[in-house]
């Protein structure tokens, strides 16, 4: 039997970062063993057998061999089984409120990823409008339930652990799409929340440079380790390290950088 849970993950994955944030906040970084999966290579048959053929990550294996999937499920599981006070709100009403906010994360994440993967220049405005509408919805929720800010409650909590990794991934929208939150009351509260999440020390697992470089292929419409046309090495490759690569070109609609331009050529 395993001595502690194992999480199979992609290091830069936002859904895995949620778990790292939780462990950091709970002061138990070593309570889980993280095992890296290279999504640019065929999946290990042993891991595929454990997950019964599914490839979505992260996946948690409990000490008794039970396999848990879906990052929010794993996040809540760890929050319940770790020793000490849970990150989730103990008051039932407050937990319901944070759960309502967390329920908004799925459409928000989907809109951001579809936006960065968009290859139709004429469709940029539609993607921008959809994402801004979701930001306004979150702004309205926060302005009603937590007008004083910056957090939903008095400190960084479960909802922040869920959204912070997405705010960091959306650096790719700032870089590749020139995305900005407009000024004004419709965005002020969510802007404050987003900035507080980005700046919190428990969310420092990734940097803007890392996100921009590793997610370049997403900006070309190729996700999860897939290769854009004419390329032989994924931007998600472990080698060369992202620190040793140049920044990718911003103009995704005008130019597709080669492996050599991205510092990926051997």
UniProtKB/TrEMBL annotation:
GO terms for molecular function: transferase activity. InterPro entries: Glutathione-S-Trfase_C_sf, Glutathione_S-Trfase_N, GST_Omega/HSP26, Thioredoxin-like_sf. Signal peptide: none annotated. Transmembrane segments: none annotated. It comes from Shimia aestuarii. Gene3D superfamilies: 1.20.1050.10, Glutaredoxin (3.40.30.10). This is Glutathione S-transferase. Pfam families: GST_C_2, GST_N_3. Residues 3-86 form the GST N-terminal domain. Keywords: Transferase. One of its GO terms (cellular component) is cytoplasm. The keyword Transferase applies.
